Amino acid sequence: MKSVLMTDTELSVEDMTTELPSEVSSGVYGVGIDIASVERLKLAINRSGEKFLNHVYSQNEQEYCENAEKKFERYSACWAVKEAAVKALGTGFRYSISFKDIELQSGDDGRPILKLSGKFYELMQEKSVNYSLVSISHEGESAVAIVMLCRI
Question: pTM for the whole thing?
Answer without folding.
Answer: 0.84
